Amino acid sequence: MKNEVREFRRKRNLSQADLAEDLGVSRQTIIAIESGRYSPSLPLAFRIAKFFEVPVETMFDPTEEAVT
Amino acid sequence: MNSMKHPRLLAPAAVVLIGTVMAVAVGIGHTWTDALVSEIVILFIAVGYFFITGSKGDIGAIYRRRTDERQRNVSMKASRLAMIVMFALCFVIALIEVASNSNYWQEDAIGSVGGVSFFVGLVIYGVRDEDTAGTSRGIMSSDTVDDASEVDEVRPPM
Q1: Strand, helix or coil at A3?
Q2: CB-CB under 8 Å, A28 with B70
Q3: Which of B66, B84, B119 lies at the terminal end of a domain, its last residue?
Q4: Could you give the ipTM of this predicted complex?
Q5: Domain range holding B98?
Q6: Which of its termini does chain A have fewer beta carbons within 10 Å around, N or C?
Q7: Nearest-CA distance from B58 to chain A in Å?
Q8: Is A9 part of a structural domain of the chain?
Q9: Do B71 and A41 touch (CB under 8 A)?
């Protein structure tokens, strides 16, 4: 699933480890989400969107496959 | 509050304890030299376990049992693979035992108990997987869903 996590993270100058700690997940999970290898659960997707203060539809696009 | 000073030692200590019981059984049934070898192997496993739980990454997190949702998914897939391998091994060993006119009740028991456990797991986790309206859709439910629209009717709109 295509997502904008990496883009929003970089805009805030956050490392993957920083974002992982803020969201309560592992760095490997952030890496997997950004590369499109893992689609987060609904609660986690909403947490990510809330963290970046954007709608979840802005952050995740289930209609497109991620380009890794 | 975590009352344990060294929680990482808990699992390796359990490995040593259980392994020592196994080593004593080996000593009683075989030789005490074999028991010593068994105990040394157990100690290596316990030390390895201790270092694995201290490692960063998915494997360390899973062995530490401090997992996020993706790591729990990985752990479940790994468990399923282990189960498949064990079942296959039981089957192969049972085949060999049958072909050599030996008793294979151990492999039969393992396979049978495993199969029943899987079914019980489906019942338990299926029954517990209730929707917000409290309608159970586990496999023990007598309701059958032939049409997807029927599911929408019984579940509350999100």
Answers
A1: strand
A2: yes
A3: B66
A4: 0.84
A5: 69-132
A6: C
A7: 7
A8: yes
A9: no
